[in-house]
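Thread: "does anyone have the structure for this chain?"

Original post by V.I.:
We have the sequence but no experimental structure in hand. Need at least a predicted one for the grant figures.
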Amino acid sequence: MSLANTPVTKLLVLGVVSGSIAASMLDIKHYFFIIIDTHLWRYRQFWRLFAYQLCYTNATEVLFAAMSLYNLRTVERMWGSRKYASFLLVSSVITAVVPPLILTVLRPLAPGLFNYMPAGITPLIFAVLAQFHAMVPHMYKYRVASSFSQSGNEPSITFSDKSSKYALAIHLALLQWPGSLLGAAVGWIVGYSWREGLLPAAVVNWRLPGWMVGLRTQRRSAEFEGLRQRLENENATTGASTGVQGQADNAAERRRTMGQQIVDQFREAL
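Reply from O.Q.:
Generated one for you, C-alpha cells below.
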C-alpha cells in the first residue's frame, strides 16, 4: 500500500532487485562495471556506458538502493508518473556518459584511483534526491548533543526527519568510492540543473508518450468516473424534484378543510 500510485518507483525497485539477482545467478556481473583503461581505452567497449546502470554487483548496494528509491517515492506522487519517468530517462542518459568521461580525464592524474566505475543507478538516485531536497519540506527537527549540561552551550548537531533518507543515499555513494561518489555528485548536479532550467528547454520539457505509463487507462478511468458522478447528480436532482413535488401535494392536502376531506372519503367509498 505504501507504493500505491507510484508505478514507476515500483517498477524501478523490482528492476534493481531482479536485475541484480539475475546477474548474480547467470554469472554475468563482470559485464556491468567499467574499467576505464581496459574496457574503454583498450577494447573500445562503449556499450558498457549504457549497461553499467542496469544492476548492482553486491547485495549491500541493492539493499540501500531499494530503500533509497522507496524513500524518494514522494517525488513521483507530486510530479505524476509521466513527468517522473521522463526525468529518469533523461537523467539516466546523461549520467551514463558523464561520470565515465570524467574518470577518463582524471585517470592520468592517479591511474590506480580513477580507473573504476562501479555498476548501479547511484547517479540516478542522487538526481532524484536533488528533487526531493528541493520539493519536500521537513516536518520536524531534533538536536543531538554530546552532553546534558544545563548551560545550553554544549556542542550539538541538528537533524530533521529527512536526515535518515540522506544518510542512506550517502552511504550508498561511499560504498565504492571514488567512482560511486563521483557518480553521485554528477547525479545531484544533473537533478539540480534539470530543476533550475540549466539544461536545454527541449530536454526539460520532453515527456514520454502517455501510454507508456498507463496514462490512457487513467484517462478512461477518469472519464468513467466523471460519467458516474454526472449520473449521480442527475439522480439526486430528480430525487430532489420528486421530494419537492411530494411536499407540495402534502401541503395542498393539509390546506383542504375537514368537510372536504370527509366528502372525498365517502365519494371514494361509493
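V.I.: this helps a lot. The beta strands are 34-35, 116-117, 141-145, 156-160.
O.Q.: and The longest helix spans residues 215-255.
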